[in-house]
Amino acid sequence: MLKRILVAVVGVPFLLAVLVVAPEWATLAFLCGLCVIAVHELMSAVCKRATVRRWWGLSAALAVFAMTAVFFSDVRFADTSMHVFSPFFVAALILLHFAVLVTRHGKEDALTFLDLCTMLVAGVAIPLALSCLLRLRMMELGSGLVLIPLVAAFCSDTMALFAGMAFGKHKLAPLVSPKKTVEGSLGGIIGGMAGMVLFRIIFFLCTEVQLNILWCVLLGFVGAVMGQLGDLVFSAVKREFGIKDYGRLLPGHGGVLDRFDSVIFAAPIIWLIISSIRLWES
User: Fold this and answer.
1) Residues 215, 113: one domain?
2) Looking at the structure, do residues 31 and 94 belong to the same domain, yes or no?
């Protein structure tokens, strides 16, 4: 527990500095770094060591290009070559993954279909999910909006932990995560909504923009539910392949996929909602 707290004491100010204070390109660089690490963690969990050593760089490059393509898809870059060619680079790298599957078939360094699927999830699905943080950062008032998935997911994680320790009796998904309970899950949902109410107050104090309270509560609810689903999904993968943590980057937390598994699922849904509604009156 002490290690978790110490990481939070250092990590939270760092996240705020990168996502809120620094320019948008810093968010891009930070997310690219997370994705590169996540590719290695997922491939190390699922694939053979030799496969990781040979092909991790290919999927890491795909992850970086996928994130960069989202950044340059913004209308501000509409007249630049990166806006035009970035999607083609991503498509070419995806096709290269399939080409490797075919050309190396039957050879010592061949890829299995499971390897290919893992590489594409790590190189495409996870970066596109995390890119929704970048999409939020690039919106109006984005330096605040980008924090919404983190607030909803992390507040849910924290409250679920304490609620489970205090009241947990009924197992939520014992074959996937034996320590998680229904009571902890409900506490996490309440924590996500309460966290968003607190975020709304701080957001107003910093920007003098009043967010709609009902939408904030809904975002907290959705972020908490999707965050818990993400946690369980990545826990199921760990169970299947017999590992405790994806990595050791964050003491007390594990790796990037251990800490950001909830955000990977929460961010896309929250971005879809925010981009479809009027979160505040202009």
Assistant:
1) no
2) yes
